[in-house]
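Posting for a labmate who doesn't have an account.
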Amino acid sequence: MEWYLKVMRENYANFKGRARRTEYWMFSLFFFLFAILGGFVIGVLYGIGGEVPGAIAVFLFVIWYLAHLVPSLAVTVRRLHDTGKSGWFLLINLIPYIGGLIVFVFTVIEGDNGDNEYGPDPKAIASSSEKLGM
């Protein structure tokens, strides 16, 4: 949950720098879990309350989703930066079927060791702060 909140609070629209696999995948996990929960709530409200509470729940879900659109794009771009790819590689998702798979592979592979053109290695920064006891 800490990684999810870090993306939402500190890096909401930050498209610069790099994101570790942990940051990207933990954000994605909690985004997915909250989306499932939202879908469940919508289904229950439609089933129990009828159309009006269900429609309100759908409206709130859409607002929630739109609030997560920018941070989701930002963390994906920063994850691509960690692997040495430009954020424009995110447009590969527009290729039917294979595009999403290619971006998935880019988000799964290990990031560049050391600094790259997008900034310092976030894994090295985290390990050095752990050694210092921070």
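Reply:
Got it, the structure tokens are right above this. The two ends are 19 Å apart (CA to CA).
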